[in-house]
Design brief:
Blueprint (H helix, E strand, L loop, with lengths): L11 H16 L5 H15 L5 E8 L2 E9 L5 E3 L3 H9 L3 E3 L17 E9 L2 E10 L7 H14 L4
Antiparallel strand pairs: 1-2, 1-6, 2-3, 4-5, 5-6
Helix pairs in contact: 1-2, 1-4
The structure holds methionine sulfoxide.
The site of methionine sulfoxide (SME) has 15 residues, from helix 3 and strand 6.
Length: about 160
């Protein structure tokens, strides 16, 4: 059993530092990508308040395919360039969306989602997956969240 000491009152930088340490400890030496993504999706879900979806889309044969996640069942395949995840995969850039309803082409997997953060995971400069976080609250994510998830993405890039 894994237990984590999650201080939701801690500054975001500390919360993410602790989350990345936990993810590092859980995935270190484990070669199975699905197991690692599954545990990281669960860690994101446990550490982050006010989220309704946390998980992965993987790049498979030139499109995004649903990976391990927490939250409601979601769209399985997303072409590059479509929706927030597709924009992150195509551009290789983090997408911080304060209001998904005004994002052109946003794909509504869960009608409750109001804001979204998507961070590409790059291995040797190539996008291999994206980490997707959804919240039912408008403007839930800020640049500190983006930085924290980018640190996580870097750490796991050769473990998924
Ligand atoms: N909203 C995403 C689709 C994935 S779900 O949020 C889980 C998008 O627009 O890419």
């Amino acid at each position: 059993m894994y237990t984590f000491d999650i201080d939701t009152n801690a500054p975001k930088s500390e919360l993410y530092a602790e989350m990345v340490r936990s993810a590092d400890a859980m995935t270190s030496g484990e070669p199975d990508a699905v197991a690692n993504m599954a545990n990281i999706a669960a860690l994101l879900w446990a550490f982050l308040p006010d989220v309704n979806w946390t998980g992965f889309y993987r790049v498979v044969d030139g499109e995004l395919v649903l990976g391990p996640f927490q939250g409601k069942a979601a769209c399985i395949r997303i072409p590059f360039g479509q929706g927030v995840c597709g924009a992150a995969a195509q551009s290789g850039e983090t997408q911080l969306v304060a209001d998904v309803h005004v994002f052109p082409g946003h794909i509504a997997c869960d009608a409750n989602s109001a804001s979204e953060l998507v961070v590409p995971v790059k291995h040797n400069g190539t996008v291999i997956a994206v980490i997707d976080l959804d919240s039912p609250t408008l403007n839930r994510f800020d640049t500190e969240d983006a930085k924290g998830v980018e640190l996580l993405a870097q750490m796991i890039a050769d473990r998924i």
